[in-house]
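Sanity check

After download, print the first record. It should look like this:
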Amino acid sequence: MEFKNPELKKKVETALEEIRPFLQKDGGDISLLDVDDATNVVKVQLEGNCANCSINQMTLKAGVEYTIKQHAPQIEEVINIEA
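Expected structure tokens:
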């Protein structure tokens, strides 16, 4: 997939690399699907144990979204796209 704003994508990827070890520790992972710089929405896919975890929405908001917003404050929301 081609991203319109490579600088924003890089910031989001840096944030995901920061949080990925915590997800992997619990047998999960995360993939970046899209960064929409028009709506400032990031689409990700939680994988492994994170995909089926009962608290994955808390992980998504309190962990992933928070970390991404630290690196890219213009991001409004992070959405998990289920497989």
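If your output differs, re-run the checksum step. Summary of this record's structure: The longest helix spans residues 6-25.
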